[in-house]
Design brief:
This protein has 25 helices and two strands. By secondary structure, the protein is mostly helical.
C-alpha cells in the first residue's frame, strides 16, 4: 500500500508543479460567494454563468448535503459542459466518507460525462491545480479495493493542499480524507492528524464551513469534545440552510452532556430539513434521545409516533429501520414503558443491515428480562439475525441500509450475550449472568469508540450497574455507573443509578 500511495503522491505533485501558482489559473472567477451555506473562495476556470451553482454545490458538499450538492454541480455542468471541476464535484457527492457509503458505479458515470478516460478528462482541466483535483478523484474511483483507493485519494489531496496552501477547500477536504482512511471506524491518531489540518484552516478563516464541520468530527469524543466547542458554537450559524450543519454541533453537545444545546441543535436541524421536504430521521433520533435525557417523554413520544405514522402511510427501508431504533431508545430510556406501541414488531424485510433491528431486539429483551417469555423470543430473533448476516457480509455500498459489516455483527453478538446474561440473572443464576455481561463488556471495551447515543442503546456498564445495585453490590455498581458516565457524560439513567446509591438502605 505504501508504495502505491507514494506513486500517487508523486504523480499528483508532478501535475501540480507544471503550474507554479493557482492564482494564475486561466479564466479564473475569484468572486467571493456568500449565503446561508457559508462562504468560500475557490478560483476556477468555469464559465461565469456556472459559478453560482458550482460554489453552492461546493458549500453543500462541505455540509454533507450530498443530494442537493449533486443537483448544483449538475446545473453547473449544464451551464458549462466543459467545466471539469463541476464533474469533479458531482463525482464526490457519491462518496460519503464517514457514513460508510459509496456509489462507485454512479461516480464513474459522472466522470465519464467529462471524458472516457482519465487522460481525456485531465486534458479538459486548463490548470495544474484543477488537474490535481481530478487526479485525486480518479484515485478515489480507480482500480483496487476501497481501502487502497481511500488512501490514494487522501495522498493526492494532500499533494494539492501542500502545493496550494491558500486553497482552504483543498486543505479542508484533505482533513476529511484523513478521517476516512479507516472508513467508519474512529482511528484516534488519524482523527488528530485531521484536526491539525482543519485547525490550520480555522486559523486562517474561522467561518469556513468545511473546517468547522471537520473539526467537530475530529473532536467527537468525550475527551476531545471541549476542543470542538468553538466549532460547534459557530457551524450552525455559518450554514443555517444546511440541516446537517444544524445537527452537527450536537455531536459535541452529546459528548459533553449538554442536553439543552443538543435539543436546540437537532430541533433546528429537523425544522430546516422538513421545510426542504426531507425526513431528517438521523436528527430526529438524536433529538428523541436528548429529550429523554431530560425525561421529556411527551416530546419524545411525538417524535416516535411521527416515524410510526410515516411507516404506516408510506413504508420504506429507511423509515422502518429508524422506527425500530426510535422504539428501542424509548424502551430503554423509559425503563420499558409500553407507550408508544414500543413493543410492536417492525418489518425488516428487504433490509440487509441488521444494526437497528438488532438494537430493537436487545431493547425489547432487556426491558422484559424479568418476565421470561418476551425476552426469550427477542433473544431468539436476535440470534437468527446474526446467523443470517454472517454469510452475507458486504463491502461498502451506496446505502448503509444495504451494508452488512463485520463490526455490526460483532456488536449484535455482544448484545445477544448481554441479553442472555441478563436473563440468567433474573432466572436466579446471578453470578453466571453477571459474569457473562462482564465478559461482553471486556470485548466491547476493545472496540473502536462510536460517537453519539450509545450504539447498543443501553450501555452495557449501566445495565451491569443496575443489576449489581439490585444485588446489593453497591461499590461495584457505583464503579459501573461512573464508567458509563465517563463515556456518556450526564446520561440520566446512570446518574439515577448513582443517586440511588446515595439513598438510605
Amino acid at each position: 500500500m505504501k508504495a502505491s500511495i507514494a506513486v500517487t503522491a508523486l504523480l499528483v505533485w508532478s501535475v501540480l508543479c507544471a503550474d507554479p501558482t493557482y492564482a494564475h489559473d486561466p479564466a479564473q472567477h475569484a468572486d467571493l460567494v456568500s449565503g446561508e451555506l457559508g462562504t468560500t473562495h475557490f478560483p476556477n476556470s468555469g464559465a461565469p454563468g456556472a459559478q453560482q451553482d458550482f460554489v453552492r454545490g461546493l458549500l453543500l458538499l462541505h455540509s454533507f448535503e450530498y443530494a442537493a450538492a449533486r443537483r448544483s454541480f449538475q446545473a453547473a455542468e449544464r451551464d458549462d459542459p466543459g467545466f471539469a471541476m463541476a464533474y469533479w464535484g458531482e463525482a464526490l457527492t457519491y462518496n460519503h466518507t464517514l457514513w460508510g457509503e459509496q456509489d462507485l458505479e454512479a461516480a464513474r458515470a459522472a466522470l465519464a460525462k467529462l471524458g472516457a478516460t482519465p487522460e481525456e478528462r485531465a486534458a479538459k482541466a486548463p490548470s495544474a491545480r484543477e488537474r490535481g483535483y481530478l487526479v485525486s478523484v480518479e484515485q478515489l474511483y480507480g482500480e483496487g479495493g476501497k481501502e487502497q483507493r481511500d488512501a490514494n485519494f487522501s495522498a493526492a489531496l494532500g499533494a494539492v493542499a501542500r502545493a496550494y496552501p491558500d486553497d482552504l477547500d483543498a486543505r479542508s477536504f484533505y482533513a476529511l480524507s484523513i478521517m476516512g482512511l479507516t472508513g467508519r471506524s474512529r482511528n484516534l491518531a488519524n482523527y488528530m492528524r485531521a484536526a491539525a489540518e482543519a485547525e490550520a484552516v480555522y486559523e486562517i478563516d474561522r467561518l469556513h464551513p468545511g473546517a468547522l464541520h471537520y473539526l467537530i468530527h475530529a473532536y467527537d469524543d468525550p475527551i476531545h469534545a471541549p476542543l470542538g466547542l468553538r466549532a460547534a458554537r459557530r457551524y450552525g450559524k455559518v450554514a443555517p440552510a444546511a440541516s446537517h450543519a444544524q445537527h452537527m454541533p450536537s455531536h459535541i453537545f452529546f459528548a459533553l452532556g449538554l442536553w439543552d444545546d443538543a435539543i436546540e441543535a437537532n430541533a433546528a436541524s429537523l425544522e430546516t430539513a422538513r421545510a426542504q421536504g426531507e425526513a431528517a430521521y438521523h436528527s430526529l433520533l438524536w433529538l428523541e434521545y436528548a429529550y429523554l435525557q431530560e425525561d421529556k417523554r411527551r416530546e419524545a413520544e411525538q417524535l416516535v409516533q411521527s416515524v410510526a405514522h410515516d411507516v404506516a402511510v408510506g413504508p420504506n427501508k429507511e423509515n422502518r429501520a429508524r422506527l425500530a431504533h426510535a422504539r428501542a431508545t424509548w424502551l430503554v430510556e423509559t425503563r420499558g414503558s409500553a407507550s408508544p406501541d414500543a413493543r410492536l414488531p417492525v418489518d425488516s424485510g428487504g433490509i440487509a443491515n441488521i444494526n437497528y433491528f438488532a438494537v430493537y431486539d436487545f431493547a425489547r429483551g432487556i426491558t422484559a428480562a424479568d418476565k421470561g417469555g418476551e425476552a426469550r423470543a427477542a433473544l431468539k430473533q436476535l440470534r437468527e439475525r446474526i446467523e443470517n448476516a454472517r454469510s452475507r457480509v458486504t463491502g461498502v455500498t451506496s446505502s448503509w441500509l444495504d451494508n452488512i459489516t463485520v463490526q455490526e455483527i460483532e456488536e449484535a453478538t455482544l448484545m445477544a450475550n448481554v441479553l442472555a446474561g441478563t436473563m440468567q440473572y433474573y432466572e436466579g443464576d446471578k453470578s453466571a449472568g453477571i459474569a457473562q455481561i462482564r465478559a461482553a463488556i471486556g470485548s466491547a471495551d476493545r472496540m473502536t469508540f462510536e460517537y453519539g447515543p450509545p450504539w447498543s442503546v443501553k450501555p452495557f456498564d449501566e445495565l451491569l450497574g443496575e443489576l449489581l445495585l439490585a444485588d446489593g453490590r453497591r461499590a461495584e455498581a457505583a464503579a459501573a455507573f461512573q464508567k458509563t458516565l465517563a463515556v456518556y457524560p450526564n446520561r440520566r439513567l446512570a446518574r439515577e443509578g448513582l443517586a440511588a446509591l446515595q439513598a438510605p438502605h
